[in-house]
Amino acid sequence: MKTYLATTNYGTYKYVRRVPKLLLEYTSTASFRVSLGSNILEATQTALSYNNAVDEAIQLISLGISSDVIISKLNGLIPKDKIADTATESPKQGLFLTTASEYLSAQAENISVEETRDKGYFYKEVCSAIFKELGLTDNPLLSDLNYNHLLRFRDIIARLPKRNIQKYRDMNMSQILKNIKAVEGKDKLSARTVNKYIKWLRALFNFAVVLNQLQVNLANSLPLQKTIDDKLQRLPLDQFELNRLVESIPQQMQYLLQILAYTGMRLSELYKCTLTEIDGYKCFSLTDRDIKLKTKSSYRVIPIHDSLLEQVEHFYQLRALTSSDNLARTTSATIKKLEFKSKEKKSLYSLRHTFATTLIQRGADASVVSELMGHSHTTMTLSRYSTGFSIKQLKEVIETL
Fold first, then answer.
1. Which domain holds residue 36?
2. pLDDT in tens, 202-216
3. What is the DSSP pairing of strand 274-278 with strand 31-37?
4. In terms of pTM, does the model score above 0.85?
């Protein structure tokens, strides 16, 4: 990953990067130039955070988010006198995409960039294509959508394929809809994902009701799909599988995988955390309130396992060498090649399940595990992330009777 760090004649560092074309209309300068001091680690960390900010701003543009939110992402990169005037005429109220953009802007401070991106993709790409399939425009008035439209919408959602399957990744949504009858059952979205989409639609309609664009939320009456046990949605790797996985991926990625397995961090958190020391213990810190995490409980400190300490001083450099997308793709592809048992339910995210399951089965207090994982309560930890106690543990408890 390019850091865009430049060294000055005085031995200090600068962040120097040409402004991407998509961002030129938001700034009156052609390049970002920010002094970063003389500490290489701090400069690298700041440069990476600026890179993330630029990437997030570009994502928000593609989602149609308002300009003030986009500019706020570039705080520190653009001097106030270089911010361009992006005021435009307000679009017609009540149009689906306009309301979706307003809803995402209103939620920007409360949800993570990843969730904003995913919701934006759903509203802008998925919904627009399905509306056209239903014989409407790709941006209808919300008041033109009747309950029959929504039932047919739900039916189409339930037949969509998972986007992480290679043959669908290069298709746009219109192409996928043309080939939807050919989607095999094993390739279809899970019931949880279908329900998530329905809930996002409900939330948007609720927002429209608040804005007096609708009198009633018809989407609230859409039935959800029955889901299987959460524990069966994603499976952890056992110790043998974890060791095989680490040995089989490129060397520059191995330490990052070990961190995920020994901290329970989400992938996005790995790229947002910083190193700190508390009471003599080195830790990964996710306490900076300027970063966007999934929930309030996600802001936490995680002590670093002894096995990770030897390379921890190289953490920032190793992280800079591999993007999060590349790490996820490489890990998932490697798992498939290794032919693990139930491999279709295992991916990079399985390491978070491995973390929870291993600690719970070794007798760790569920409330402590929940705090380490950033859960607000133990129910989430035990019901979704841990596969439960071992037979040996259950037998030992039974024998206490």
1. 5-82
2. 999 999 999 889 999
3. unpaired
4. no
